[in-house]
Design goal:
single chain, about 290 residues, five-stranded mixed sheet, 5 strands
């Protein structure tokens, strides 16, 4: 899981390097399945720890499972990470995996995927890095217009405002940026083309979530940590392809969640993994020991 090695290469290494002739792909699968069942209590306990934080981020990425496009979802905060796989990219996935009841007290940092804005949370923070990237596309599309440049500059000024202060600048500063945002959103951009109107409409839908970080402590202006947490899935796709079964995807999600949590707390992923599989019945207390 940590190095994203496919089963056949693991089995080949064990046979060729360590001369364990009986080590097959089935052996790899059995080891993963057996230890995943031991780790489930620790895996699901991570949700409770995330729910106690002030802020968390979510993201999702497409991965093929048994040749069908499915989705790996990530819910993460500074110290904890929970990843799960599901065929759905909507509310059904969050409901099935028990995510919804853990979000109510969180500021949730996300992209503009509509599912995130349908969940019950304290408030939202839309990723400004995504927005600046979208605006750059419009800027390259039509270099004569000023609207996307002004929107980009507004976002960058707000980011600078948040970065230069030791504490969030506060509600009054946020209102100043939201007022300028309203002026830009009221401008007519339809004559620039469909892409301009589509992005403006998208921003209008989440206009209240662009500058949350200016008056909420500990809230970033981006969702980079969530993207980093599931980037390993793209690495795995390049190295080993997708997953053959849903069970295999679930095993990967379980172990990756625990290993990424270990990394976030400055612990060796391999040492934590060895500690996990050496215990008879690891439970939620394992997390307490892992984050000390």
């Amino acid at each position: 899981v940590v190095q994203s090695m496919p089963y056949n290469r693991i089995a080949e290494m064990m046979r060729d390097v360590f001369s364990i002739e009986s080590f097959s792909e089935g052996t790899v699968k059995n080891i993963l399945s057996r230890n995943k069942n031991k780790a489930l209590a620790v895996y699901y306990a991570l949700l409770g720890y995330i729910a106690k934080e002030k802020c968390a981020g979510m993201d999702e990425t497409g991965v093929y499972i048994n040749k069908q496009l499915c989705w790996f979802w990530c819910l993460q905060c500074t110290r904890f990470c929970f990843v799960f796989a599901d065929p759905s990219r909507g509310m059904e996935a969050l409901r099935k995996h028990g995510i919804l009841e853990h979000l109510a007290n969180l500021v949730l940092c996300t992209d503009r995927h509509s599912t995130y804005f349908n969940v019950d949370v304290l408030t939202h923070q839309f990723c400004l890095v995504h927005l600046i990237r979208n605006l750059q596309y419009l800027k390259d599309l039509n270099e004569t217009q000023q609207w996307s440049r002004d929107m980009q500059q507004l976002c960058r000024n707000a980011i600078h405002e948040g970065n230069k202060a030791e504490a969030p600048p506060g509600t009054e500063v946020r209102k100043k940026y939201e007022q300028r945002l309203e002026e830009l959103l009221n401008q007519d951009v339809a004559h620039y083309g469909k892409d301009f109107q589509t992005l403006q409409n998208g921003i209008i839908k989440c206009r209240d979530c662009l500058f949350t970080f200016l008056d909420h402590e500990g809230v970033p202006h981006h969702n980079n940590a969530s993207e980093a947490a599931i980037r390993i899935l793209k690495v795995k796709t390049k190295i080993a392809g997708g997953f053959r079964t849903q069970d295999g995807a679930d095993e990967f999600a379980c172990f990756h969640s625990i290993m990424d949590t270990a990394k976030r707390n400055g612990k060796s992923k391999f040492k934590i993994l060895l500690q996990l599989i050496s215990e008879d019945k690891p439970d939620a207390s394992f997390i307490e020991r892992m984050i000390v």
